[in-house]
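One such given next:
>
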Amino acid sequence: MARAYSESIKAVESAAHAVIRPNNAKATRGTMLGEIGNTRRKLSTTISTTSGDPIAPVEAMMRMLWVGQTSRYGAQSATVPETLEAARAGVHLAAARAQWFFSGAVIRTP
């Protein structure tokens, strides 16, 4: 369960890396979320939104994955328990995000 969750999140990192931080070989979810904040006007999706910020849903879902799986780091405080339900939701969320990046549904403009 935790392994599937972890591997699906790594797939998102890999897929997003090519779009969000292609020139940073050591990009992580955290640095990519920062990059989204810094360059959001250069990022777009093929699905329009009513908010006027087409990348906001992608950012929110990436942040959910980043915050939701805490066992990837050692810490002095306890990590969030990874229940079967949370792992299933995380895997599905990650699969959708990875597909969006791999398929070109999220793009970076020059």
Notes: The CA atoms of residues 12 and 98 lie 5 Å apart. Strands lie at 43-45, 106-108. DSSP finds four helices and two strands in the chain. The longest helix spans residues 84-103.
